[in-house]
Write a structure and sequence with these properties.
5 helices, mainly alpha
Amino acid sequence: MITDLNYLKSMSGGDTKFIREMIDLFREQIMEYKSIMPELLQKKDYDGLSKIAHKAKSSVAVMGMSEVAELLKELEILTHDQKEVERYEPLITHFLEQSELAIKELERSYK
């Protein structure tokens, strides 16, 4: 399992409609990140990339994706400091791949 919805379930009192809405919002956010992050990387807009990584970190944390949240925290810090530029693309790719898998997992669980 990539996701852990215990936080969402607890926060919502088990309201499946609310959880479904949060999953839909997560899917929309991931689609946005999927188009924005590679573009920012290509433009070498590392400040913008740092801000998106920060925003994305919150999105995945709500879905209980702690490993991916840590990866995004690392990306946020690296891009902010403009260090180890060669690591940005693999980190972004891993984030997007894990997020796509998470969406499929969540949709199977909450049809």
